[in-house]
Description:
This protein is α+β, with helices and mostly antiparallel strands. It has helices at 2-11, 29-45, 61-77, 88-95, 99-117, 129-142, 146-149, 168-177, 194-209, 214-243, 255-259, 263-278, 286-298, 405-411, 416-419, and strands at residues 20-24, 48-55, 81-85, 122-124, 155-156, 159-160, 244-245, 251-254, 304-306, 311-315, 319-324, 338-340, 345-348, 353-360, 371-375, 383-386, 393-394, 403-404, 424-426, 431-434, 438-439, 452-458. The termini are far apart.
Amino acid sequence: MLERIRKYCRENSILSYGDKIVIACSGGADSLTLVDVLLKLKEEYALTLVVAHLDHMFRGDASAADAKFVQEFCLAKGIPCHMQQTDVNVFAALHGLGSEEAARIVRYQFLRKVASDLGGAKIATGHHKDDQAETILLHLLRGAGSAGISGIRPINHDIIRPLLSVTRKEIDLYCEQNHFLPRIDQTNFEDCYTRNRIRLSLLPKLKEEFNPSITDALCKTAQLVGDEHDYVVESAKLHIKKLLQKSQKNSVIEKKDFLRLHIALKREVIRQIIIMKQGDLKGVTFQHIEKMIEIAEFGQVGAVFILPSEIMMKVSYNTLVFCLDEGDHTSQEMNQFSEIVLDETMRNDFFNITITAQLLEEYPQETGEYSAVFDAEKIYLPLFVRARENGDRFKPLGMKGSKKLKEYFIDQKIERSDRGKIPLICDQQGILWVVGHRLSEVGKVTASTKKFLQVIISGRK
């Protein structure tokens, strides 16, 4: 196994001579194996190694015991260990985040702080082939493009994954052979998390009934799609160099040249420009990109689209201008999308609301004006929240046929100035809920409903 990892690191240029590396170590089998493997490669690459462990304080005494175990393991191996304790539940509550997302943010903040203190080190994580397979399935179920289907990459900026060529079973065997006694996180066996259900139920079923080598098949797909995605990204960057006009603060591209591009390149050109402006794609969904392309193609001069990060795309006579929002727009122009991820709590700053969506086996006990329940088998995921658009129609619950949203607002005597401030919960086919006002016939719960999807809005006034 060590030789396979060494070969994988060499083929993917994961390690370089003289690297400084911060090893993320939870105390589980994968992270103990990662520490041991990198120690065995230390002399070959002249590596400077340190371990970093974050106690999330999720599991009380068990979390504290994990931290002590990692500290003692590092002491026995003679490797420096950096520790930090953070109450992630408190952090999540303060920032309106789900526990998983909050844990990820806090963990990488800590790891990057250690890496910075070490003088700009790489961060090594213990992701392996089974993690890769789970990630690809997770992204497929949520609806993903090539970036999502390419899964976990061996190198992602400052993060490296040396173990992506080996399986969980091989890692467990490695620990057994080296007499390691990894810590077991019992939350990995709880079925309240989507990833856990994929690991514990879906993947075993796929292996048993469809393909015993499904993990290898998914990882191969990730490699192929990832290579093709990398090619599209590099091609988009080359096109941006040709399209981009010089400007002190704005990114300006020729509209007619942009519209000649293949749709895959249009999407990636917009993504790369957003990355240039805000540093990442956080908060940017597929619906955002598609809407921006639609406006670029069919929007009138002066049409704008504003992302949650307040980056704005504005249609000019011959160009598309990407800049920071200047704030002088109507709510109709500021129509924004946010994709809703199941089993996670998300914040939408445009509407100043927090949204939680979860699948349930029974009709929920808690309902109210800002809680809606749908038949999960009658809707088309993913869900998203947006403001109204010209021409919107929906099927008000209890009515036959559809109705223009504008007419519904008039009938309800909703002031014109307030209409753009009302969130609309939609699936891929249309409006499901005019929040605080009316549900749609689409996705309505009946006596035959077996799976329920509840959406809760909080913070709405």
